[in-house]
Design brief:
The complex is a heterodimer of chains A (210) and B (74). By secondary structure, chain A is mostly helical. Chain A contains 10 helices and no strands. Helix content of chain A is 66%, strand content 0%.
């Protein structure tokens, strides 16, 4: 596999190639195949690290290890991938399964969060907003894993309910019910921790019910 | 707006900072994935040393062989 600047043929080819085109080359194997897979890794690593960081409630640097493992697992199954697979969705599903199994290893996540005083690499808002952000991360990390998982997939990754159901391998109605309970649990715990009424917050336009 | 919709909007708003978060991945990320992929084709140290140790255990040392022969003679 090559570095991001390398390609199956030339850097320009990789930049212009779609995920599907790179996947075709990657599945063919050999040196070019590994370079193409490397290009896919470079293209998708950032959002995957963020997703795993949120799912496992660990700092991004720690989530990198899980993200690398997710890519390796996808690589191992390249031959079995359908021709029309959505690479991002496939990687996401592999990552959510990996996180589901790995979450028990993260028993020390509260300690990690507190001791490292972790803030996002590019925090949004002023430094004064940091305690609220920290509270947000701690509330998420306190939630039962299935609740945290579905909240992140819906409200951070902004997947549709159908996509979530497919990714988690559950029915649509089960996903809806889990999401409803997760939202209620999140708001209840967030308000208890911050002692504020979040209803006073500004509401963004929605448009998420796909 | 129903209570259910209101809760949905509140959660979406509160999680906004996580949506906006941009993660800086280490420069060696892709390289590390490549190393792991390469390692799939290479026997691990455990395999190599495990085989070595097993061979050593199975091999009969000259001293043990001598002792066995003496015992047979007795």
């Amino acid at each position: 596999m090559g570095r991001p600047s390398e390609s199956c043929e030339s850097p320009a080819v990789v930049e212009d190639a779609s995920d599907r085109e790179l996947l075709v080359v990657a599945r063919a194997g050999g040196r070019s195949g590994r370079r193409a897979f490397g290009a896919l890794v470079a293209r998708h690593q950032s959002w995957l690290v963020r997703l795993l960081s949120h799912l496992l409630a660990v700092p991004p640097a720690q989530a990198e290890d899980y993200a690398q493992e997710a890519f390796v697992r996808v690589f191992q199954r390249l031959d079995a991938l359908p021709d029309v697979v959505d690479f991002r969705a496939y990687v996401r599903t592999a990552a959510t399964r990996l996180a589901f199994n790995a979450r028990r290893d993260e028993a020390n996540r509260h300690r990690i969060l507190r001791e490292s005083a972790w803030a996002p690499d590019n925090p949004v808002g002023s430094p004064e907003a940091y305690p609220e952000h920290q509270a947000l991360l701690l509330v998420l990390s306190d939630l039962p894993y299935p609740y945290r998982e579905i909240l992140i997939l819906r409200h951070v990754e902004e997947l549709s309910l159908q996509e979530i159901a497919e990714s988690l391998d559950v029915g649509l109605s089960a996903a809806k019910m889990r999401l409803k309970r997760a939202r209620e649990a999140f708001v209840e715990r967030y308000e208890a921790r911050t002692d504020t009424d979040t209803a006073a917050s500004t509401v963004e336009p929605s448009g998420r019910d796909r | 707006m129903s209570e259910r919709d209101e809760t949905e909007e509140r959660v979406h708003y509160l999680l906004g900072p996580l949506r906006a978060q941009r993660v800086q991945v280490s420069d060696t990320f892709t390289e590390n994935v490549a190393r792991r992929v390469e390692a799939l084709d290479t026997p691990s140290l455990v395999d190599v040393f495990g085989g070595f140790v097993l061979d050593s255990i199975n091999a009969v040392s000259p001293r043990a062989q001598e002792e066995d022969e003496e015992a047979d003679d007795d």
